[in-house]
Design a protein that fits this description.
The structure is a homodimer. Chain A is an alpha+beta fold. The first copy, chain A, is built from eleven helices and twelve strands. In chain A, helix 2 packs parallel to helix 4, helix 5 crosses helix 6 and helix 5 crosses helix 9. Chain A is globular, with a radius of gyration of 21 Å.
Chain lengths: ~350, ~350
């Protein structure tokens, strides 16, 4: 539980010595391009991206220190990886493929070059894994802390794009993977941070929690699920990625599609480690799934006629269905209570 | 000389009341789309941009409060306008046309809704003027101050794109408009801020300085120059926009092109108001041009054979030529001194 920033210490290389252009040269030296459409990388006023007859998808995400991440327990390399991964997830949520990113970084003078290099290393690791090219950026100073802005550009054939607005009453609501793990990872890290503050000699007690920690620190965009759906010849009617929590994302789908939704608590998929961790925090796992966020799984609707095609696919769970009650979503508990879903406030669930 | 933030005062609408999605709804309500290629605006995980057989250009810029702007004297509406304008300028510098932007905003709780609305109003004003569509964004909180990240996406035909690397020895170096004004505007605003701090009853003394103030607060990308060059059948061999100051941009061109450059001090174009303001600060106008930055004029090279085509075009000045001395640039003064250009440090020019 040490900060990668303070550790860099006095031996770190000052960025102000390098200057902005020196920093850019340093950071871009290791960039390799993967996409035939990436015609240039950093070095001009704008990157050049060739077109290939598909539609372009673009999305931007800001990550702010103290709001979206805590460098006390987030290694910068993981942070860089996550920053890219969550952007790729935005393109995946449209059923598209990410090809390029441009990166803006604002950082205060407390960050030595080594810290920024680590951040970039993580970004490039995700870029390499998902065959995404880092084609441009802007690096500047900030008056406090670190801010990362990533814009991702992808493509999809017009007829393959999945919007949030395509769900219809009666369609099935599906989710990939399992939920709640990232939030349980966050709670664990926050608990260890508090324990370390109280007693710096304490060793962190994170054994056996690898899965939920990795889900928090190093999420993966579910591009593999898109491929599985394509192979099963299923095109989701609506799709979104789970960044803010299941309840919030369901309400987004309902609002955009003009439908309602009903889900079943006992259909929400969990990993055993998530269940154990939730138990140790005396928390209902459903709360972590509904309200926790950062799982970056895909939430999507399919027509009932596609039920047979996906019912046996490992890693996809049907958790409910869309209704004709616009904007209203609820959850049926195992004991047949019906609980309205709201984007915030889980008092109703704080039972047992 | 009042702050638009503190003025919003206790009557301002708190953004935390609205929530992120309420804020996004509020901010995007007035967005109109201009481009046939903008197939969707905000509302999904990514914006969809149709392709039309051209190459895509993309660029990102971060603007950080306390680093790039001072809200003491920068109206938020102007700031929004400028943030978009400088991004359009990046695409113009590639000889391309900007079509879409995505906007990331991080802001602390001291900003009421009215402040963010003003910022957006300025952004949309620039969008409307330059027929650029705001197609997506991310709004989040920051722990201190305001940060704006804008990614601009444009297109150009492959054969029309101007890179920094295309200049050859012997070619002519040209600049659009006039230089140094934005920097003189900045010095004036800083002087008035200091005077106001010393004596808050003092009225700002900015009469007669409209031109340099507007150049600082509300710069325009020179898309008109691109059109003029097209009509004159001139394609620049290399191009860059002047954001960091003439000297720095010349060195970028030299480095990317593997050439040197010589310019002539008496060929640098100035507006009379810039000359007067520089005089009142007892500063050589050339220093403002070389080192000041933020003029957002276009700096470009053309083949000697194009000389006749542009020599009589109003608003384009030939200020020097490229040499075969890689990476080395200098300036000839009216009294025939030769001064090496460097990206920083103007001691050599602090004469007379």
């Amino acid at each position: 539980m040490t900060s990668p920033i303070s550790d860099a210490g006095p031996s770190g290389t000052s960025i102000s010595q390098l200057g902005e252009f020196g920093l850019i040269r340093h950071l871009t030296a290791n960039i390799r391009l993967h996409q035939p459409t990436s015609l240039t990388a950093a070095g001009d006023d704008a990157a050049v991206i060739g077109n290939d007859g598909k539609q372009t998808l673009v999305s931007v995400d800001l990550l702010v220190e103290g709001v979206h991440f805590d460098l006390t327990y987030t290694p910068l390399k993981h942070l860089g990886y996550k920053a890219v991964a969550v952007n790729i997830s935005d393109i995946a949520a449209m059923n598209g493929t990410a090809h390029q990113i441009v990166v803006g970084i604002a950082l205060s003078s407390r960050f030595p070059l080594e810290a920024v290099s680590e951040l970039y290393e993580g970004m490039l690791l995700a870029c390499n894994k998902y065959k995404v090219d880092l084609v441009g950026g802007d690096t500047t100073s900030s008056t406090s802390g670190l801010l990362i802005s990533i814009t991702v550009i992808g493509t999809a054939k017009a007829e393959e794009i999945c919007y949030r607005s395509g769900a219809r009453p009666g369609e099935l609501l599906c989710v990939s993977g399992d939920l709640g793990a990232a939030y349980m990872g966050l709670l664990l890290l926050e608990r260890e941070k508090a324990a370390f503050k109280a007693n710096p000699d304490l060793q962190p007690d994170l054994e056996g929690f690898d899965y939920v920690l990795e889900r928090q620190l190093k999420p993966e965009p579910r591009t593999d699920i898109l491929e599985i759906l394509r192979q099963a010849d299923v095109k989701p009617t609506a799709m979104i990625d789970i960044s803010d929590g299941l309840a919030s994302e369901i309400l987004h789908l309902c609002k955009a599609s003009g439908t309602g939704c009903r889900i079943y608590e006992d259909k929400i998929p969990f990993d055993p480690v998530t269940l154990n961790t939730a138990d140790s925090f005396n928390m209902l796992p459903a709360i972590a799934a509904l309200n926790g966020g950062e799982d970056y799984e895909l939430l999507f609707t399919i027509g009932q006629s596609d039920f047979e095609k996906i019912r046996n696919i490992r890693g996809i769970s049907i958790i409910g269905h869309m209704t004709d009650n616009p904007g209203y979503a609820d959850m049926v508990t195992p004991d047949n209570q019906i609980i309205p879903l709201t984007a915030q406030g889980w008092d109703a669930l704080m039972r047992g």
